[in-house]
Amino acid sequence: MFEEPCVTQGLENYPNSNLHPQTCLKTMQKSTWTGGHTSSVLSLDVNREGILASGGEDELCIWSKDGTSQSKLPFTSYLSGDCDTKEVNSVCFCVKNPERLYASCGNKILGYDLRNLASTVCEFQFNEDEINQLAIHDKGTFLAACDDSGEIKIIDVASGRLFKSLHNKDDNICSTVQFRSNRPWEIISGGMDFKVVSWDFSSGRPLQEFNVQELGGDSQEGAYFINPPFVHSIHMAGNGRMFVAGLGNGSIQLFRFEGKKKFVPDECLKKHSSSASQVHFPKFSPNDMLVSGGDDCRVVLWNLSSGQCNGTSVAENIAKEASSVCVVHEVQHGSKINWISSSSPTQNIFVADLTNDISVYCVT
C-alpha cells in the first residue's frame, strides 16, 4: 500500500534544544503484528489483561495477548445508512470491566462485551459531528466523546443517557479528551483553537483555560513554526498530578497541577521536527515515563523521574542541561504515528501508523 514518505531531521536542526540522547539504559525491541487490517490502523487500546483492540478504515479488530490471533467485529452492520464514514477513530476499554470495549465511528459509539462479540451491548449517538476520541472514567461510570464541532458529550454508561454537554465558546475541533485520575468530576480537553481546558463536568463549566500560543518560543526554531501549535493529543499521568499535550509545532508541553484544580505549564520538550501527534504515559510506568510519536516518524521514550537517567544522575542532568527530563530511547519508526498505547505488567508499547500493521516495542 502507499505510504507517505517519512522525513526526519537530526539534532543539528535543534540548536536551542537542551535534550540530547545519551548512552541508553533501556532498549526497545520491535516486533510486528500483521493480518488484522487491510488499511491504516487509526486507533488502539489495551485492557488490563493484555487484550488489544485496534480500529481502522472499515475494520475493528480484537487481538490475543501475543498477537497471534485476532477477531474482526461486525461493526459496520450497526451503522446507519446516512453514515458517511466507516473509520474507527477511537477505541477504549473500560478500566473497571476489561471485557467492555467502546469504539467510535462517525458520530456513533458502539459498545461490546469481549465474551460475546457477535452483537453490541449498547449504542450511543449523542454527538452531532465526527468523534475524535473516547475516554472512560476510572470508575467506569462515564464515557466522554469529543468531536469536530468542539463539543464533549459525557455519557452516563449505566443509564445510557446523556449526562452533560461541554462546549467551549470557540466553535473549533475538539481533538482530544481525558478524565483526570483520582478526581471524580474533572476532565481535560484540547483542540484546534490552541486551548487546553479543564472542566467540572458535573456542572458543565470550565475551571481553567490555557492558550498554548502564550508559551511563545524562539524565532530561530524554524522547524517548530511550520505548523501552528494545535493540541493534537493529551494524556494524564496515573496519579492525576500531571498531564502532557502533544502540539502541532512539534513541542510536548508538560503541565502540573498546583493545589486541587489549577494547572500550570512546566517543561516543554522538543525532539520532534513536525506535529507531535501522540503522547502517552505508559501503563507500566504511568508517572515516571512518557512516550511520544509524531509526523516525523519518530517514537521517543522519555524519563520524567528523579534518579539515574541514561547513566547520569538527575542532579548532574539539571546542572548540565537545566532539565530533569531526558530521552531514554529514540526510534526512527518509518511511518507517521496515528496512535500509541501500552500494556502492563509487560513493558510493551503499541504503535499504529499509516501501514496496516501494528508495531510492538518491548522496553527492556
Q: Taking Cα atoms only, what radius of gyration do you get, to the nearest Å? A: 19 Å
Please state the overall shape, judged from the principal axes of the Cα atoms.
globular
How much is the average pLDDT?
A: 87
The helix tally amounts to 1
Keywords for this structure?
four-stranded antiparallel sheet, disordered N terminus, 364 residues, globular, 1 helix, mainly beta
Structural description of this entry:
With 364 residues, this protein is mainly beta. The chain has 1 helix and 30 strands. It has one helix at 314-321; strands spanning 28-33, 41-46, 52-56, 60-63, 70-72, 88-93, 100-105, 108-113, 122-124, 131-136, 142-147, 151-156, 161-167, 174-179, 186-191, 195-200, 205-211, 231-236, 242-247, 251-258, 262-270, 278-280, 289-293, 298-303, 308-309, 312-313, 326-332, 337-343, 348-353, 358-363. The chain has a 4-stranded antiparallel β-sheet, with no helix packed on it. The protein starts with 27 loop residues before the first strand and ends with a strand.
List the helices and strands and how they pair.
Elements lengths: L27 E6 L7 E6 L5 E5 L3 E4 L6 E3 L15 E6 L6 E6 L2 E6 L8 E3 L6 E6 L5 E6 L3 E6 L4 E7 L6 E6 L6 E6 L3 E6 L4 E7 L19 E6 L5 E6 L3 E8 L3 E9 L7 E3 L8 E5 L4 E6 L4 E2 L2 E2 H8 L4 E7 L4 E7 L4 E6 L4 E6 L1
Antiparallel strand pairs: 1-30, 2-3, 3-4, 4-5, 6-7, 7-8, 8-9, 10-11, 11-12, 12-13, 14-15, 15-16, 16-17, 18-19, 19-20, 20-21, 22-23, 23-24, 24-27, 25-26, 28-29, 29-30
